[in-house]
Amino acid sequence: MNFEQSIGRLEEIVRELDRDDLDLDGALALFEEGITHLRVASAALSKAEARVQQLVEAADGTFALVEFGS
Amino acid sequence: VQGEGAPEELVAAIERVCRWPNADLLIIGRGGGAREDLWAFNDERVARALALCPIPTISGVGHEVDITICDLIADFRAATPSAAAEMAVPSRRELAAHVRSLAGRLASGVRRRQDRGVSALNRVKSRLSLGATRVTERRRARLETSAGRLDALSPLATLQRGYAVARDGSGKTLSRREQFRTGAEFDLWVSDGIVRAIVQSVRVLPVAVSAATNSEPDPAEQL
Questions:
Q1: CB of B148 within 8 A of CB of B157?
Q2: How far does the CA of residue A11 sit from the closest CA of chain B (Å)?
Q3: B198: which strand partners?
Q4: CA nearest B138: which of A54, A7, A40, A13?
Q5: Given an 8 Å threshold on Cβ–Cβ distance, is A28 in contact with B150?
Q6: How many angstroms separate the CA atoms of B140 and B133, rounded?
Q7: Distances B86 to A12, B66, B82, B91 between C-alpha atoms, Å
Q8: Which pLDDT band holds residue B151 (cuts at 50, 70, 90)?
Q9: Do B196 and B176 touch, CB atoms closer than 8 A?
Q10: Does the structure show a pLDDT above 70 at B84?
Q11: pLDDT > 90: what percent of chain B?
Q12: Could you tell me the pTM of the whole model?
């Protein structure tokens, strides 16, 4: 699941959690799923931010592109 | 070139040059000498051959004071053979100056183009890094919003108030007493952890609580 899919599902979960007729069991299950998507999306975003940082720094100096993680 | 047969030699030489495809220019000339020695350059055959020459011609015969028919027919007249040669090619000094000027213009042209390229590159560079940063910043903000709402709606907040959720090994919530068997193990989810528990016994809620919370109290349990 990529970042857009994860955050899309996370936003859906938040909307569902907001409903009044949700039982605690359902809420817990949704919450757990939400936490999972939050972690996935956050990790993907951190990776993207680090990559942008790398590209920007390279552009300031040498114009070399360094593949993130290599 | 003098004496008998000189005109024929001159005509032959002119025609030879004209036949040679690489010739750019024909110079007909002779160093100074007695007037009679220059007579060959007044010969009609020589004059006609020179007139027919398809490439430009320069004549430089004898000294400045000597004028021959060839001088009148050639495209240009030089006073002497040396002057004819000078007329034919640009001076080395002029050529060098021209080359230097071209080199200077070439260098400054390249520098100008380079400067334009560098400033264009710098503009694009800052726009690129700004754009890339904005892409992640927007998403970071969106994620923070969802994370905040998820936290606010957390059912764990309920657990913080002292409630617990009983779940079996597969994660299913146990909310009714018939889901518990004496001796069976189950998990108790509390605000900061999971407690493994064993069912000791099962009994109904006290009547007062049951009536207040349960919409359909079990009649058999009511005393």
A1: no
A2: 6
A3: B185
A4: A7
A5: no
A6: 11
A7: 93, 19, 6, 8
A8: confident
A9: no
A10: yes
A11: 35
A12: 0.46
A–B interface: beta-carbon pairs under 8 A: 71
| Mean pLDDT for chain B overall | 86
- In degrees and rounded to multiples of 5, residue B181 shows phi and psi of -110, 135
What is the enclosing helix (H) or strand (E) of B198? strand B193-198
ipTM of the complex: 0.76
Q: Which pLDDT does position B97 carry in this prediction?
A: 92
Encoded amino acid at B97, one letter? A
**Residue B147: its chain A contacts at CB < 8 A?**
38, 42
Q: What pLDDT band is residue B152 in, cutting at 50, 70 and 90?
A: confident
> Token match 């992640």: residue?
B136
Per-residue b/e over B179-203, b at no fewer than 16 CB within 10 Å? ebeeeeebbebeeeeeeeeebeeee
Please give the DSSP secondary-structure letter assigned to residue B89. S
Is B132 in Cβ contact with A56 (below 8 Å)?
yes
Tally of CA atoms within 13 A in the half-sphere of B48 that contains its CB:
5
Residue A70 has pLDDT above 70, yes or no: no
